[in-house]
Structures
1.
Amino acid sequence: MPRLRLPGDSAALETPLELFDARVSQLWLEIGFGGGEHVSSQAKANPDAGIMASEVFIEGIAKCLSDIDDMKLSNVRLWDEDARELVDLLPDACLDRVFILFPDPWPKKRHQKRRIIQPDFLRELTRVMKPGARLRFATDVRSYADEALTIFLAEPRIEWLARTADDWRTPPSDHFRTRYETKNLGDIEPVFYEFQLND
Ligand SMILES: C[S@@+](CC[C@H](N)C(=O)[O-])C[C@H]1O[C@@H](n2cnc3c(N)ncnc32)[C@H](O)[C@@H]1O
């Protein structure tokens, strides 16, 4: 993946907007993109955004690469390893948006510590988000929805942008459905939490 794969060193990632072939003014990150439908749809709809997208599942990476090629997208770059390693390499306050959509749910109690939303990782994410940046989290597993919300709201700089009591039950207007979402494997209707990072 020579032109699409992000370099694995912090020096190259110091000026991430320059890593895209397209001229972009915003930097977005999608973590665990699966087959990449959401990545390619957002990239097409937002040519001004450079999207860094991370996935470890090789078939998903191949599918996303094929879509990027078919759609002639020059504002996407892929990271084919653990997203947490990429986040560690990023400079402070560089991201405008983050998407964590239907992450592996690990529904069994004894496996829940494997979930990607953990206090330490969230703190590291807030380091690389700009003040005012948005983070969208979606899940269809009740225990993950509850646990993640508790972790997000414990972070002092994170504000939950819930406008009404239950608007988090409705997909945001700029959401593109993901392959995992369509499988309805969870125990609740999907929830979409939208957060903003404050100063
Ligand atoms: C349940 S799937 C959902 C995929 C996609 N977001 C969707 O909604 O269709 C979660 C994905 O996250 C990926 N994943 C899990 N841990 C990851 C990590 N640390 N870094 C990057 N990707 C990860 C998995 O390989 C898997 O494809």
2.
Amino acid sequence: MPDAPARHGERHRATDRRRFPAALLFGAPGVGKGTQGSILARIPGFFHLSSGDIFRSIDLGGEDGREITRHISRGDLVPDELTVKIWRRALDAHMFLSSFKPREDLLILDGIPRNVHQAQMLQEHVEVKALIHLECTDTEAMVTRLRRRALREGRMDDASEDIIRHRYEVYSRATAPVSEFYDPSVIHRLDAIGSPAAILRRVLDVLVPIQDAVFAAPEAAAEGETPAPGA
Ligand SMILES: Nc1ncnc2c1ncn2[C@@H]1O[C@H](COP(=O)(O)OP(=O)(O)O)[C@@H](O)[C@H]1O
């Protein structure tokens, strides 16, 4: 059941205390996380949840929507408490509608966690089995890609080159350290240069064995695997 809405600023306490096995799609803006995520979303057994997509689907006229817009339009991160609250609400809604089926689907998170504090907050909700770091050293190529995406999709976070460059600065300062939060055994660094299919193959090489291991024992998956720390 979806949780009762937590007030803004309150720590979100999920009523469903399961920790869902998850893989993180990680990397700089424009590196292709969303492309891989949307392909994975079409494969049975994966459930892709993008924090950016969640924010873009929120009613911009409401209180949360106005605050989110303020941060996104500057290329800044949305505050952690609000981010995790809304992310968890979206996850609960998908579970309620059975678009996310915890017994069958490996959760693929895209765009979250975006700093170490979010990584700590998410520990209560997910068990990170893999962090897939899509790497591309050609920042200029990615900036060009984002400018094209802005024209195509009208995204406010890519509206100007200044905002895009600010997003890179936020990535290097706040997001890149997230990969050090996790055990090195779960980190997979993949070359993000290549066709979507070539990169998909690299991503699946990591994810398929994890999916097999997590869902091989149906009763373990049915229990939602590991209880949250302190549960
Ligand atoms: N986990 C998060 N924490 C804070 N802000 C976020 C988070 N995810 C997305 N955002 C906000 O939404 C914007 C767009 O995110 P996203 O769609 O993931 O961008 P990209 O795919 O280019 O990396 C970010 O620049 C940020 O302002």
